[in-house]
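Backbone-to-sequence.
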């Protein structure tokens, strides 16, 4: 079964690489080696974001950043786990690193 792990940073995000990025890369490499990591992707910074809403057949685009948000999703992993418990273990390991 596939699972998605979202990586969230609190604002304001510090400049440079996040703490634990090397350890997260090692965990990702371990999952990839085992054939379980299907996709890992950082997301564009919030300043480059846009939101599109369609109402009444009309699209409206709003550029970011979205100041009302206190956190932002900065990346994701799509990975395979045999059970929910295994997926939660991967999430726990990633959380402890970051």
């Amino acid at each position: 079964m596939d699972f998605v792990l979202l990586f969230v940073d609190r604002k304001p995000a510090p400049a440079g690489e996040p703490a634990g990025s090397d350890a997260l890369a090692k965990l990702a490499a371990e999952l990839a080696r085992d054939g379980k990591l299907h996709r890992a992707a950082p997301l564009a910074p919030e300043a480059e974001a846009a939101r599109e809403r369609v109402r009444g057949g009309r699209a409206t685009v709003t550029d970011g950043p979205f100041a009302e948000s206190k956190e932002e999703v900065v990346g994701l992993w799509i990975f395979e786990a045999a059970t929910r418990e295994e997926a939660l273990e991967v999430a726990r390991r990633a959380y402890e690193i970051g």
